[in-house]
Amino acid sequence: MSEKRKTETGSTKSKDAFQAEFEALPLDEKFSRLFKMEAVTIGETINYIVDNSSKVFDKAVDAMNEFGRKAQADCAEKKADLFSETIHQSIYA
What we know:
about 0% strand
């Protein structure tokens, strides 16, 4: 039997055991466990959103920094060209 098949079989058995255990619980305990699972799910969802929001913010900051670097390089290049042209005109004027 392959490793994947063993994992699937073990997973199915644990799922069946979990389901049988859950079915045997009284209704109020079922609700209690469901609410706990929902609370965990909401917490994980919030963490996921916060993590991805910070990644988006980081990418936006990186894009703005790159834009600033390009603008600064263009400005420096134009300033150098203007300076060179001014020097050239003053020498040959």
